[in-house]
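Interim report, section 4.2 (structural modelling).
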Amino acid sequence: MSLYHEMPENIFVTSVDQLLGWSRKHSLWWLLFGLACCSIELMHTGGPRADIERFGSAPRGTPRQADLIIIAGTLTYKMASRLKLLYEQMAEPKYVISMGSCSNCGGLFDKAYSVVKGVDQIMPVDVYLPGCPPRPEALLEALVILQKKIQKEKYLRK
Amino acid sequence: MLREYGAVLLFSVLSIGFIFVTLLASKIIRPNHPNPVKNSPYECGEVPVGNAWVNFNIRYYVLALIFLLFDVEIVLILPVAAVYKEWLNTGFGLLALSELLLFIAILVVALIYAWGRGDLNWIKTYERANAMDELKNAGDYPLEEK
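Predicted structure of the assembly:
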C-alpha cells in the first residue's frame, strides 16, 4: 500500500506534502560518519554551543535509522566501498551533505593516489559545504539549506 | 471501584491503538524500495562474511550460576541480620539462627557438589572424550570414527 503513484495536484495533496516535508526536515537524523579532521568540527556541531539537535537532527549509530549522512573528511578509495554500502543501507528518503574540501573534490589531497576526488563520484550529494574544515556554524547553515530543499520536495508525486 | 478501572481500560485501548495507527500511517506514507544490498546485515560498512551462528566456549556461565548461589544467600541473610536483635528480645533468636545455618548448609552442599564436579576449575577436561577413549581401549565396543 503506497501513495507513490501519479496524483493530481490539488489542495489536499499539496497540504499533505507540506506537512510531510515539514516533519521530515525537522527530524533529519544523521549517520555518525567521521573520516578525518572535519569530524572534529562535526562533534563540535553536536556540542552545546552549536547544538545541532535543536534542528531536530540527532546522531545515529546505524544507517537503518538515518536520513542524512554527513561525509566529514577525506574519503579514500579503500573507504569508498564501505561508504557506498552504508549509503545503500540507509532508508529512504536519504540525503547527503559533503562536508569540507576533501569530500567535495579531494581538497588538499587532490594529487594523492589514494584519495577519492569528490564524494559525488560515488553517490549523489545534496549540499556541498566548502571549508577546510568548515566551522560548526557553516555545517548548521548547510543543514538549514538542506531543510529548505526538503521542504520544497513533493513526496506524494515522486 | 469498578468504574475507576474504566480509565485503565481507556488508557490501554488508546495506547495500543496509538501504536497501530502510527505504524499504519508510516506504512502508508513511507517510501519502500528494498533491494538485496539494502537488506544485507549492517556491519559498519563491511560486507558480511560467513554465518553468524557459530559455537563459542562460554566457561563463565557455570561460575555465574555459582555466583548467583551466594548472591541470593546474601540477599536473604542481610535482612535477617538487620532485625536479628529484635528477634533476640522476643526469644526466637536461637530458632532464627538455626534456620539461617540450615539455609547456609543447604547452599554449601550445592557448592561442594559444584566443586567436586570440577566446575570451579577454569581449565576443564573433555570428560566425554576421555570416556570415549576408555571405551575404545576396553575393546568391548568397536567404536569406529564415521
